[in-house]
Predict the 3D structure of the following.
Amino acid sequence: MKYNLLGNSDLKVSRIGFGCWATSKHGWKDVNLNDAIKTLETSFEYGINFYDTAPIYGFGKSEEILGNTFKSIRKDIIIATKFGLRWNEFGKVTHNLSRDSIMYEIDASLKRLKTDYIDLYQLHWPDYKTDIIEVIDTLKDLKSQKIIRHIGVSNLDINTLEKISPFIVSTQNKYNLLEKDVEKDILPFCKEKNIGFIAYSPLAQGLLSGKIDNTYKFSKNDIRRFNPLFKDKELFNKIENIDKPLINSALKFLLEKKEVSSILISMTKLNHLIENIKIAESI
Ligand SMILES: NC(=O)c1ccc[n+]([C@@H]2O[C@H](COP(=O)([O-])OP(=O)(O)OC[C@H]3O[C@@H](n4cnc5c(N)ncnc54)[C@H](OP(=O)(O)O)[C@@H]3O)[C@@H](O)[C@H]2O)c1
């Protein structure tokens, strides 16, 4: 496994990061919880040290599984979690970046993750109401108390990113062979400012794995039913033109980019983990 420094921080992250969204099972079809936990555990033996989660993934379940799995080797792994998405007892999700909400969320995350510090604490999505500088002030306080080691963001536009660039070490955005919006401004900006770039959905939620065709049916609660990519009738024609095996092309595209610090892949099956590691090692 190769490792990259995340922006100007001291975090040396594996270039394949483990995305723990599907680990919670919530919103993903075909996930067996025992297999998902085994895959997570084994990933460390293959050199992965960078784990990305969020409170919203499985309404706390993903953080809980991650905390339980690695509590005995906490210092050897890098935990990235997030804040800003809250849910109520009916599962209704709201955005909230207020100071009170962040203070509530960090406590809950620390408990679920069984740790007393977070390596990378990331703003998950903008709430379009709280002043971004106020959010940064809250995070600076958490940093000065050593509760978080570094500040990261996700899904912000370039203008907001420009305002806060001196305070953050990374941004996390969607980036894959089919979705390249970040190339127009965010990726060059990160390169210029030495901000770590973390790519999410590198396999376009499985579309680029080569194992999904246009007859694939998602269950009622599968989050991919809301992904516009899966509704694009032309998509499978576009995929036809990409070199096969598709998954090798998808991972190669990101792994060869110097600006990309780590790519986060959700994996809940051991054979998927092993296949991805093998591809990464060949590049
Ligand atoms: N910041 C944000 O707003 C945001 C948004 C989305 C995601 N993320 C982060 O990024 C991570 C990854 O993104 P994602 O979950 O959207 O999508 P992804 O990693 O592009 O795709 C995940 C899907 O790919 C499948 N897969 C992985 N390796 C495979 C292989 N070798 N062969 C066949 N299928 C394979 C997984 O299947 P199995 O489960 O069956 O192994 C899973 O269904 C998340 O876990 C999360 O940490 C962040």
Observations:
- The radius of gyration is 18 Å.
- The chain has one domain: 3-281.
- The longest strand covers residues 148-154.
- The longest helix spans residues 99-113.
